[in-house]
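Quick note —
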Amino acid sequence: MNNKPKTKLLTISLLCCGRPDTTERCLKSLMPIRQAIDSELQVVDTGCSKETRAVIEKYADEIFEFKWVNDFAAARNFQLDQANGKMFLFIDDDEWFLDTKYIIEFFKEKECVTYNIGGYFQRNYLDFDGKEYDDVEVIRMCSVTPETRFVGKVHEYIEPAYGNAMFMDARAGHFGYVYANEEDNIKHSMRNIPLLQDMMKEDPDNFRWPYQLAQELRATKNYEELYKLCKENYEKASKLEDNESVRYRGSFICGVVYALRHMANKEDEVIAIYEEQKKNQTIMDPALYSLAFMASCEYFSMHENEKCKDACNSYLKFYEKYHEDKAKFILEGGLFINNAYDDTSVSMVYCFLMTIGMDEDDYGPLVHYYRKIGWNSGVVRLNRGFMMMLLQKSAEIGYKKELRDVLNKFFVNKGFRDLIEHEIEEIYTGLTVEQLDNMKAAFRETDGQKEMELFLHIRTMEKRISSVEYWENYKQLRDILEAYAQVTVKWQRAHDNLFPSETATFALAPETKLGCAITDFLEVAETDSTKALKIIKDMFGHRSIMTDTIQALGNLYSDYVKVRVAKETDPAKFQEMYNLEEQVLRQIADLDAAGHTDEAVATYQQLVRIISDTYGVESLHV
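Predicted structure written out below.
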């Protein structure tokens, strides 16, 4: 209980036990607030190293020590009891403010002290590069009164929570949910699960604790337990009509569906829950249309096009009306709900509608929705079914303006270009040469036309080369592979030039590595057969479709070397045998033409045996 006289407007406080680098980043980000606002900075040391303690001492006005008792609320209440400010703002030592402008503006307003509770947005990064993230509202501010306190051993919250509330348009970066491996992720959640189970026993009528436990079960991928927990608490909340219970209903029913979607053969149950809520709605709108999103995913996988379109359109109608209304999602959204409205989910729905449209030869949805996807955003996710349909139609139709406009978007950055080439690589062996030519035409007038013509030409050549069952001679195969090698180098150059690398080096693609190996082989084939054969051996593994062709090259080149050595060793004898082979081959042709096929075959077998015994090859005409 804090009964201290208030000598400051604001107390900024943080619990600290972390690494010195993250702690200093956090403390530095607070300095603009300290300089602009009548404030103090208090740090509660829950077990810092000497190095971290030294960092804290550079910034903090006061440092307090608190022995960790496995109870976050106890530590937070200790923090609160030390405050000398009328208002209390707290932050964790692994967070840092990206911008404090709106925080400073808020605390400069006289009315700031009339707010009982508030917070900011925690930007939870999903990767170590900071490219992907979720912005989540967190309660991190309150007025300081004798009644103010924290509740909960973990995922603690502030009471009382009524009165004026303010969410400041500020974001605190946070890498705390990015783990080096899945084991660390599970370990973090397993630490919280027993504490939450204790809170459920101590406070069985508070839905906050099963709600938070559901979050940890999701992190540990314990979908069976998640299903049971959410189902039980949805049924319990359905018997109550207060606003808080109705809000929790949405998260619990969406948690049920989330768990079902991660269990085998539960598609019908997912759809049944959505259809029942659509007819007899017992949850708030953000939860209902989150269910619509999840149902649309199942309908799409089941090729239920009309039902998928209906679910998608219902979802988009709600999204387009409310997606900028942050207050609605704060008040009516929550766990398992709000993620359905992030950019990835919205793009997924656009992809569903575009894919179904193309499947039905209706290009209206494609024209309408491709413009809504944030192609220039840092991270964009596209549904693979959409990619496959787009390429399927390109292979089927060839050039079409509606397709071209979308294909052109794959050349706004390197990532998209690499994505579409990867998807073509996955399917091209199942396409005909005609379909590959159509696909080449589909990229006409795009920014990647030159590169894609060469990229697809390589695959057309590979299809044609690999379809040859028998090569007549070494020279024929050598000339074709030389042409292939030249195309791979041209493509690699176009590929690298379209999106120049910041470094001087480029990674060679497998086809280019094969092309370079072929070029290296041709350079030594006439002078160093040992080296040439080693190069052929190293060609294997670059392009699986070319395996048989490389094997044929090795066999034909080996025969070619044997014949060349024989000719150089005894030219007269070689010429005599060469002429004999030509003469016998003419005789065989005459026998075959006269209908004496068996005799022709026997004569040919005898010829092969003589040449093989003499030179180790079946023919001198290699």
